[in-house]
Amino acid sequence: MLRFKIYSFLFVIVLGFCSWGFHAHKTIHKHAIYTLPSGISHFFQTHSLELEERSVAADKRRYIDNKEACKHYIDIDLYGSSPFDSVPKNWFLAKEKYSEDTLKNRGILPWSIHWEYKKLVWAMDSGSVEQVIRHAADLGHYVSDACVPLHTSYNYNGQFTDQKGIHALWESRIPEAFSADYEYFIGKSVYLQNSLSYSWELIEESFSLLDSTLNLEEKISTHYIEDTKFRMSAKNGQIQADYTTEFISDYNTILNGMVERRLQRAILAVGSFWYSAWIDAGQPDLSRLPSKTENLHRSNKKYIPNRIHE
């Protein structure tokens, strides 16, 4: 039993703190391109491989930038029994009510999406190809995170309900195992009238699925003992624990397609944010943007601020 507890600790470290997983983020970005209408789709198709690779850059930054992690989640359940009525949607009003430190400690995901959206609008209008790709990829990453139930709770990894590891199980292990069979024909992107309101809408949808995410894992776990729920494997000279194939499959079955539906929701949402940014930028011909940021110096265009707080 002691050995299993040690392995479980390694399991939490290895699998507990990623968002969607690299495979899922790349899948979302790849298929979001196909939701775009003509006028913008060619640019994104041309740079599809770059977008896929940069789709996980925000997660990689978490290891070197201590200001990055809070952009990926919001612990909305820390704001009382009616959190979506309690938290002002506007950043300045929320900061006035709770303080900036409190907001950052509990996660600032909806505002991060909104700020990144504004940066993408700017990049499409006055930036470079590199900046459009960078901001489109980061925006897509944050939007995708908003579609995950466990990104809306302080119990993000089941650490308070004896379900450590559920985070990666839901958003990494299930997509890695079953995404080849998902349906990706989900229609065309739509124009978003209000990027901030839509961000909150995604988060509220995800939060409504939180109880099912946790309760169904607890229910299916009653049919397993430790040795059949987890398996040990060696990687890079270390012993690591992972869920068994059988448990991943059974949890996916009892979720009844939830992960696939949220991934589809992410694809359509990402595409809609990209499309809306292009509309708000004035529908520019993106192929005419300079390819290097340095070229902007020659045109005296104004640089984007580090962060847009609105």
Quick summary:
With 310 residues, this protein is mainly alpha-helical.
Describe this structure in words.
The protein has 17 helices and 2 strands. The chain has 310 residues and is mainly alpha-helical. The longest helix has 23 residues, at 258-280.
**How does the overall form come out from the CA principal axes?**
globular
N-to-C span = 52 Å
Rg = 20 Å
The helicity comes to 55-70%
Q: What's the β-strand tally? A: 2
- Sketch the topology as an H/E string, one letter per element: HHHHHHHHHHHHHHEEHHH
Q: Which parts are unreliable, with pLDDT below 50 for 5 consecutive residues or more?
A: 1-16, 305-309
Count of individual domains: 1
Average pLDDT score: 90
Write out the strand line-up for the largest beta sheet, numbering strands in chain order: 1-2
Largest sheet composition: 2 strands, antiparallel
What is the H level of CATH, i.e. the homologous superfamily? P1 Nuclease
Q: What would you say the CATH architecture is?
A: Orthogonal Bundle
CATH topology: P1 Nuclease
Helix and strand content put the structural class at mainly alpha
Strand portion: under 5%
Give the oligomeric state of the chains in this entry, treating copies of one chain as homo and distinct chains as hetero.
single chain
What is the CATH class name? Mainly Alpha
Counting DSSP H or I runs of 4 or more residues, the number of helices is 17
